Structures are given as structure tokens and as C-alpha cells.
Amino acid sequence: MSFHGNVGSLSSAGFRAPRCQVTILHASDVHFGKPHLPELSGALVRFVHRERPDAVVVSGDLTMRAKAAEFRAARVFLDALAPYPLIVTVGNHDVPLYRVWERFVIPFGNYRGHMDRALDTVIDLEEGATHGGARFVTLNSCAPRRAIVNGRIGAGQFAFADRAFAAAPAGALRILVVHHNLVEPADGVYGPPLRGAHRVLRRLPRWGVDLVLSGHIHRTHLASSGPVESPDTAAGVPILMAGTATSDRGRGRELGKNSFNLVRVGESGIDVEVYLYSRDAGDFLPGWGRRYPEASP
Q1: How wide is the angle at C-alpha 243 spanned by C-alphas 237 and 248, nearest 5°?
Q2: Which pTM was predicted?
Q3: Tens digits of per-residue pLDDT, 145-185?
Q4: CB atoms closer than 10 angstroms to residue 11
Q5: What is the 3-state secondary structure (H, E, C) of the chain?
Q6: Among 16, 95, 234, 285, which is least packed by CB within 10 angstroms?
């Protein structure tokens, strides 16, 4: 996608209310391969078709070892989510770890062959009868040659995001999607942030970002970019980290569990509900959540 014009000076103290409600299902770390649990991906597909979100985000780690067969299985899963708009980004497990020659020479070869040729993308959700418009900007946070686990975002990608957000339709919700977490969970149980995450956090107001969606840590963490955290309030931009939706790699309090976030953006704020898989019910059921009120003008 091409962009024209200068980057504007945007201001955002946090979430800005859209004209209408937007519902986003945010899943991550589906890990097709040995850790994948097929009954859960089936349950997730059924949930999407039952609840009919306005968009589905899968924030990386589609595979376990970036093998072609794993990507083919992930592609079948993603295709089953049609016709709902789908936003996908690459995760660190989507590049080969132990196939060293491939990791250094063509690290994204299988991802590009089965998912998307582009690693940084812009996807617009056009305004509809039941929801407002939104612009999703995905940035590939994987650095297979330098920081394969913790990742990083380069200068060219910052420029890409500058142009993408500056060209967003007026009044559209602005959402940044990356795989790696930008903040560390408050309890400190696994989750060192993306290398240079502070540079991304500093740009969120300039970009006018309303919401950040990520994964990587295999546990849910509902945070914000502001300096103060409490269970009831949040300063700054909401930063939502989804757990692992369909693998056996949950961590922390989600060890042995699977989850995703259902995000409802409305005129008075953002409501996030975490859904956990129940093996007794064979379905994802509401667990807990958090509300982010509209930012003060």
C-alpha cells in the first residue's frame, strides 16, 4: 500500500471513542505443530461463526517450528474463519530456530509462501451499519538474525507506521498489532518486553493509537502504556496481550489453560472479556475482564 503526505502531529492520551461499536476477537500463539490442540482450534472457529465479530486478529506464532506442513495446517484454520476480516502478524516461532541456514538466509520463506508476502501491513475495516471504521497496522517484531526470542522493530518500520497512521481515515479506530509484548506483566512471571519497546510506547501518542494487540507470553495480560496501573483504571493506551488460544504452552496462571480476548470498543470505553476453554463444555466460556474508560478530552 502506498502513502502520501506528511506525518501529522497526533495527540492521544489513550482510547478515543469511535462513532459505533467495534467487536474484535483477539487470539494469539495458536502453534500449529506438536503443541497444537486440534479440538481447541475447532472450538475457536465455531465461536467466531457464532459470535460474528467485526474482525479477528491472530497476533503471531501460527506455528511451532515454521515448517511448511505447519503453515499449511494454519492456513486451513485461518481460511475456516472466513468471511470475517482477518488480521495476522508473524511471530518468532514462524521463523526457523534450528534450521540455521534458513533462518539467516530466508527466515520468512514459509510464512510468505503460505500467509502473506508482506510482513508489515495495513488493513482497513470499513465503517458499517453496526460498527465504526478501523485501521489495523501490523509490524513484524521478529528479528531472526539478532533477537529471535525478544524481537525488535527497525527504523524503516517506524517510518512505515508513521505513514500508515497519518493516512488513516478520519474518525477510524487506530490499532497496532505486534507479536511481542511491549510491557512486562506486573507480577514479573515471564514476559521481558520487546527490545526497544520504549521507543514504540513513546510513538503511540504521535500515531494516535487507540489500542495495541499482542501475544508472545502465553498468558493474558491487560495493561496500558500509562505509568499507573490499578484494577479499575488505566492511563494511556490499552495494551492487550492474549494467551495461547490453541496450544499446550500456557504459562503462569494460565498453565494448562487456553484463552483469547473478546474486545468490544464502544462510545464510552473498551471492554475486554477473557474467554477460557472448558473441556467439560467443549467451548470457550467467559472468564474475567477489564474495562478501559474513554480518555478525557
Answers
A1: 170
A2: 0.90
A3: 877 788 999 999 999 999 999 999 988 999 999 999 999 88
A4: 9
A5: CCCCCCCCCCCCCECCCCCCCEEEEEECCCCECCCECHHHHHHHHHHHHHHCCCEEEEECCCECCCCHHHHHHHHHHHHCCCCCCEEEECCHHHCCCCCHHHHHHCCCHHHHHHCCCCCCEEEEECCCCCCCCEEEEECCCCECCCECCCCCCCHHHHHHHHHHHHCCCCCCEEEEECCCCCCCCCCCCCCCCCCCHHHHHHHHHHHCCCEEEECCCCCCEEEECCCCECCCCECECEEEECCCCCECCCCHHHCCCCEEEEEEEECCEEEEEEEEEECCCCEEEEEEEEEEECCCC
A6: 285
Cβ proximity of 240 and 213 under 8 Å: yes
Instruction: Measure the CA–CA gap between 209 and 243, rounded to whole angstroms.
Output: 22
Are 88 and 77 in contact by the 8 Å Cβ rule? The answer is no
Residues 194, 152: contact at Cβ < 8 Å?
yes
Angle 166-126-31 from CA coordinates, rounded to 5°:
85
